[in-house]
Amino acid sequence: MPFFCLDDADRRSGRYSQGMAARNTFLKTALYILLTFLFCSAAAVVVAEPLQAPSPPSFIERTMESAEATRDQWSENWVVFAESVDRYLSNEDTAEDYSNESYLKLQLRQTIGERGELESDVRLRAKVDLPNTKRKTKLFFNSDADANNPLEERVRGGSSGERPSREESVTGLEISPLSEWHHWKRSARIGIRVRTPLVPFARLRLRRPFSDWGEWQREFQQEFWWFRDKGWGESTEYTMSRPLGERYRLRYFTGLEFEDRNDFFENVQLLSLSYRINERESMEYRLGGFANNEHRSRLTAYFFGANYRNQIHEDWVYFTVSPELYFARDEGWDAEASLTFRLDVFFSE
Length: 349
Fold this sequence. Notes:
With 349 residues, this protein is α+β, with helices and mostly antiparallel strands. It has a domain of 241 residues: Porin, CATH 2.40.160. 23% of the residues lie in helices and 46% in strands. It is built from five helices and 14 strands. A 14-stranded antiparallel β-sheet has the order 2-1-14-13-12-11-10-9-8-7-6-5-4-3. The longest helix has 34 residues.
């Protein structure tokens, strides 16, 4: 029964006070989301406001110039390192017109819970692009801390256009045939996960894009994997997206995942609508649900969220604000509000 309508029996049984508490929690969280939206809107206006007159560089501007010089140096060193590794493995020089896609990504994340609890996270992801080595067998290195997180956490922690990722700190060899098999793109990986002790793994991935639905862009991906420490598993993903006018984009994602050690399937359904405010800012609204068949097939949680993203400095510093309301079956479907701030810094050519 909704907590807005309680009869006399509920009042006598004590559920009235529980209903009032739930309503107060709902009002607080609604106000919380509203204030966040107003903050984001005000920030957008302030950022977009042009300077009235030229002025000497401020302390912040001088700091950013120094940081940019440091960032450019680190980026150049990383790309030079990748090209040196590629040259050593292939005995070939990289083409002069080739832009190396190696990068480092530093991510700082701070989440504030409804009761004031704080959760901080720092992540570093690296990619080494070896163009000449790819022609033979691709050597890869990926670093990401999301590997062992449940599917639910990986989906809630993403943003527009990001595929819920199961990449981790791994290195090894990848075979990716250039030719397609009935429009299917294939890749196979063998390697180790960088941890103590080292964990060998193998992964087979099949991916097929579709372009037969007009403006709709669709993609199906099937993956099978094995890790020595947790056995085998599989994931099935299907994505659909299309533009709505010049600034809006609608996206639907569904995923099914199985791990042998858990012996049940997890399912996620995600619907998002993104809006490009201008060249530097964007907004995304998300609605998602989670289910599994551990005991029987049933919904386990759902959430409403938003992502406001601002490209605060050129193309390598991004700031994201993400308010969210989360409802879990284990918590009696009570609303749990949170606010996440995220700073992404890219080091690339």
